[in-house]
Amino acid sequence: MSTSYTFSVTRNPSAASAAERAKVLENPGFGNFMTDHMVMVDWTLDDGWGEGKVVPYGPLQLDPSASVLHYGQEIFEGLKAYRHADGSVWGFRPQANAERFNRSARRLAMTELPEHLFVDACQAIVEADLDWVPSGGETSLYLRPFMIASEPFLGVRSAHRYTFMVIASPAGAYFSGGIKPVDIWVSEEYTRAAPGGTGAAKCGGNYAASLIAQQQAAEHGCQQVCFLDAVERRWIEELGGMNVYFVYGDEKIVTPELSGTILEGITRDSILTLAREQGHTVVEQRVDINEVRADIESGAITEIFACGTAAVVTPIGSLQSADSKSVVQSSEPGADTLGIREALLDIQYGRTPDTHGWMHRFA
Ligand SMILES: Cc1ncc(COP(=O)(O)O)c(C=O)c1O
Question: What ligand 1 atom has the least distance to the C-alpha of 240?
Answer without folding.
Answer: 1
